[in-house]
Amino acid sequence: IKPINGSFSADIFTMKTTQQTSAIAHVIATPFAPPFPAAFVSQGNGNIGWSRAIGAEFELKGKVNDKWSWSINDTVETISDHYSDATNTKDRTPVNVTNLHLGYQNGPWEADGYVYYTTKTKQPQPTANFAAPIVDVDIPGHVSFSARAAYALNESTTISLSGQELQTSSAKTSTGLETDRRKREATLHQIQQ
Fold first, then answer.
1. Given a cut of 70, is residue 43 above it in pLDDT?
2. Are 67 and 35 in contact (CB under 8 A)?
3. What's this model's pTM, rounded to 2 decimal places?
4. Which of 119, 126, 144, 160 is the most exposed place for a label (fewest CB within 10 A)?
């Protein structure tokens, strides 16, 4: 695309997952085992159903001049689940994921800025009890800012400074621990030839 000195691409995708198997817990009650009556849990694998994903990905990228470049990437997706148990891939998949990038390069200097956005999702709460029902936890929509600056000392050695999650000291991005701001004071990258 000449006005932006760049390009545009679009992809449409669909994926169907069939014969999805999962561990299935069966509760067996019997009046013949102590203590009377008793219940036992057995586990096996079984076909729990199928799922279909439909989505699209769009990317627009270009250059302002020989030093500045930029890109925008956006993915939208919807899922239709047909499961016999509590499996829920629809709510566990972001509806929208967006990436923005701005880059600069001038001689030995490089700088990049990134913005990442994802819509809210749900994730299963980890548990050691396989017989317990699966509980989904809300994961809020999230924006992340990252940056990198680098200087090439020569053709095989670059020193860089980078940081992720620069917008906050921590963010809830999963059911695990919160994602902390990550900084690297300096990284030395050398290519052996």
1. no
2. no
3. 0.72
4. 126
